Every structure is written in structure tokens, then in C-alpha cells.
Amino acid sequence: QQAVLTVPVVVHIIHNGEALGEGSNIPTEQILNQIITLNEDFRRSNADRSETLSEFQAVAADSEIEFVLAKSDPEGIATDGIVRVKGYKTTYSDNDNINLKALSYWPAEDYLNIWVAPLSGNLLGYAQFPVSELQGLEDSNNNRFTDGVVVNYLYFGTGFNADDFSRGRTATHEIGHFFGLRHIWGDGGCSADDFCNDTPLASTSTLGCNLRKSTCNSLDMIQNYMDYTDDVCMNLFTFDQKNRMRLVLESSPRRKSL
Ligand code: ARG
Ligand code: ZN
Ligand code: CA
Predict the structure, then answer these.
(1) Which of 27, 77, 177, 230 has its C-alpha lying 20 to 30 A from 156's C-alpha?
(2) Cα of 226 to ligand 1 centre, how many Å?
(3) Using CA positions, which residue lies closest to atom 4 of ligand 1?
(4) Could you identify the atom of ligand 1 that is nearest to the CA of residue 167?
(5) How far is residue 161 CA from its own chain's centroid?
(6) CA angle (112, 93, 41) in 5-degree steps
(7) What is the pLDDT of residue 144?
(8) pTM for this predicted structure
(9) 114, 152, 173: which to mutate for ligand 1, most atoms within 8 A of CB?
(10) CA dihedral of residues 138, 124, 190, 141 (deg, nearest 10)
(11) Segments of the chain with pLDDT less than 70
(12) What is d(CA 188, CA 216) in angstroms, rounded to the nearest whole number?
């Protein structure tokens, strides 16, 4: 049993018919860059790991999960793991979930599907929880044909835009959900849990970057990838999050229903 788990990834670029590298038909470089960022964040080799508050350094974990663009497609033919498809509308909301994903999909048993698309409103991305016996995933609305994560093309990769979500952490956050992680504040008040003991209770999400925030009589871990903080302020997963993700990833088959 090897320590590092490697996840084959297919990236579906759902664009508006732009030339390769233009607009929502993002350059291959941006895709490769996001994969590098994911590997840094999940292996805790991210350059900003030293910025994790000293109070939390001891619980910050190398998740020992790595991502690699698929080298063969579902038919066994060599691929670069990137599929480019012209979509049917200019922007997509979460109501378009099923139709968006139906444009291009590889079997969820074998690949992590990442759809990159122009999303409407301020939607950064969204994910589907796994089917699992783990606490907090009981009412997951799982479907293998929609299994994976969706990320707004504007926020894919590190350094491709100039706003608060420019370091590729939207994909890190969504893949955290894909592996069964809940938001750090448990989506409720001080009694709502994220089912990880080493992440302190918090009463709400945190936007921006207030590092010394305390909402439930202890320091909030706002630098966790599973908060809503700006990308530049996020830099850790914890050991309990690592264990939860790896339990999901190692359950075989990961998907328990069709
Ligand atoms: N709001 C989204 C979600 O709940 C993503 C938040 C990502 N945050 C970030 N700093 N990139 O799944
Ligand atoms: Zn989230
Ligand atoms: Ca917790």
C-alpha cells in the first residue's frame, strides 16, 4: 500500500467557440499550471505554507494525494487529458449542472472529471460530494454522470487574473469537497461540525483575510482551503481532513451507487 495516492484527471474545457487560448478556451499552459498548484496544495509544497499561523503548523498536513492528467482515454487511446468542447450557451449556472456535464464526461470510476466553463454571477465553482458512510455525507445526491468538480475558467490556475481568487485555490477547495470535506465552519453555527477534530469550530465562513478571527471561543482556522477566504490567505489542509479524503479515495469502488 503506497503512501501517495495518484488521481488521474480529465479536464473538460467547455468554451464558446473562441480560438485555442482565447477567452473561455483557455490555454493549455493554464491547465498545466492548475495541476501544478493542486499538487503543491495537496502535498503541502505550496510556497505560502510558511504563512500558516504558528498555532496551526502542527496540524497542517501533506495529504499525499497527487493529480496527473490522464494518459489514456476511456477507449485506451493516448491523450493529454484535456478535452475541448464548444458549449451551448455563453454562461452556465448550477441549474445547468446536468446538461453542462453531458457535453463531455469520462467514467467517474476511473477519472476525476474537472469541467472548466464560463459560470454566471459570481460563481467560482462547485463540487459533488462522494457517496460514503462518513458522517456529513449521508444525504449526498450522488450521480456518477455528474461526479466531479466545476470551476469557472477565470479562476483556473495561478496568476491568470488579478482578483481575490487568482491562486488556483477554487479547484483545491472544490476537490476537497469531492473527497468528502465539509466547509470549515460546518455550514452552521458553533455547534455545526465539519467532522474533523483538528479544525476549530467556527460560526461562519470568512471572506477576505482576517487571520486572528475567533468566533467560537477559539482561533478560527481561516487559512484552511475549506473556508471562503481569499486565495492568497489559504494555505492548509489538516491531518483529519487528509484522513477523511483518503478514506473516501481508498474506498473501492469509490462510487457506491449509479
Ligand atoms: N464558494 C465556492 C464553494 O463553496 C468556492 C470558494 C472558493 N474560495 C476561494 N478562495 N477560491 O464551493
Ligand atoms: Zn465550498
Ligand atoms: Ca472541526
Answers:
(1) 77
(2) 8
(3) 126
(4) 11
(5) 18
(6) 40
(7) 87
(8) 0.96
(9) 173
(10) -10
(11) 1-2, 252-258
(12) 12
Establish whether residue 124 lines the binding site of ligand 1, counting it when its CB lies within 6 angstroms of any ligand atom: yes
C-alpha cell at 64: 499525499
Q: What is the pLDDT of residue 256?
A: 52
User: Can you tell me the distance from the alpha carbon of 147 to that of 170, in angstroms, rounded to the nearest whole number?
Assistant: 17
Q: Which three cell numbers stand for residue 133?
A: 458512510
Q: What are 82's strand-pairing partners?
A: 11
What is the per-residue pLDDT for 153? 97
Q: If you measure from the C-alpha of residue 201 to the centroid of ligand 3, how many angstroms do you get, rounded to a whole number?
A: 5
Three cell numbers, residue 122: 459570481
Residue owning the nearest CA to atom 12 of ligand 1: 126
- Phi and psi at 101, nearest 5°, equal -70, -25
Length of the chain: 258
pLDDT of the residue at 258: 43
Question: Phi/psi at 233 (nearest 5 deg)?
Answer: -105, 0
Grid cell at residue 246: 483518503
pLDDT confidence of residue 132 = 82
- Is residue 28 a contact partner of residue 129, using CB atoms and an 8 Å limit? no
CB atoms within 10 A of CB 54: 6
178 within 8 A of 127, measured Cβ to Cβ = yes
Cα of 228 from ligand 1 centre, angstroms: 5
Q: For residue 68, what are the β-bridge partners? A: 8
User: C-alpha cell of 252?
Assistant: 473501492
Asked whether 118 lines ligand 1 (CB < 6 A), one says: no
Sign of CA dihedral 184, 139, 126, 122: negative
Residue 35 confidence (pLDDT): 98
